[in-house]
Write a structure and sequence with these properties.
The protein is an alpha/beta fold. It contains six helices and twelve strands.
């Protein structure tokens, strides 16, 4: 079958941090767009002539919904063709061409196993989508989300995650700051939390990592060596 491309209007843009914005797209038509939380779409952006320049993939940051809205959190990189286009050019009312969904970075269907979710930066996007969907279900498994970023001002979706932590006893939320030392946060990187001797990872835990390749390489090595988890417990998605 030929690839189906969508053309969706940007209905809102919101600043999430000094360098990150949320872009919300509205899918036209009455048919509800189906995807699995954790998946991504590929956008065809007018930023070059070649496909490798124009096509940019972004994780969907919200769960499926009857409003047919797709949310994306996109950080601005000085040399990023796609991110600079979104931050410097895109405005509400613009049309974005995209296809999808794609990707297998998803939770098992009807999962009841404990989850350890580790993210840096906009790597939190697929986890936010997963969490919104999980919290709709009757049974919420034990979940620990560890989010790492540079400074307090860079924390994404902080109020939402704190709300979940208060509402759902099985959900734990931790933040690490690598460039600031502030009360209430762990100073350092995400490894500072799960590498502690007293941090227990049950043997049936599923571990998901999303962020920069350096973080994931270090995390996988540490989890395998120090925590003795099995390779089949770990799933990851790279950002760069």
């Amino acid at each position: 079958m030929p690839t189906k491309w969508y053309e969706s209007e940007v209905v809102s843009i919101k600043k999430l941090s000094p360098e990150t914005k949320e872009f919300v797209l509205k899918i036209p038509g009455d048919e509800i767009f189906s995807f699995v939380p954790g998946q991504f779409v590929t956008m065809d952006l007018p930023v070059g002539e070649k496909r490798q320049q124009r096509w940019r993939s972004y994780s969907i940051a919200n769960a499926p919904n009857p409003e047919n809205l797709l949310e994306f959190c996109i950080v601005r990189f000085e040399d990023g063709l796609g991110s600079c286009y979104f931050h410097d050019v895109v405005k509400p009312g613009d049309i974005i061409k995209w296809k999808g969904p794609d990707g297998g970075f998803v939770l098992p269907e009807n999962n009841i196993r404990p989850l350890l979710l580790i993210a840096t930066g906009t790597g939190i996007a697929p986890f936010r989508s997963m969490l919104q969907e999980v919290f709709r279900k009757e049974v919420v498994p034990p979940i620990h989300l560890i989010f790492g970023t540079r400074k307090e001002e860079d924390i994404l979706y902080k109020e939402e995650m704190e709300y979940y932590a208060k509402k759902y006893p099985n959900f734990q939320y931790s933040i690490t700051l690598s460039r600031e030392n502030k009360p209430g946060f762990v100073n350092g990187y995400v490894h500072e939390i799960y590498n502690k001797e007293d941090y227990i990872i049950p043997e049936d835990t599923l571990i998901y990592l999303c962020g920069w390749s350096k973080m994931i390489d270090q995390a996988v090595e540490g989890l395998l060596l120090h925590k003795k988890v099995r390779k089949d417990q770990i799933r990851y998605e790279l950002y760069g």
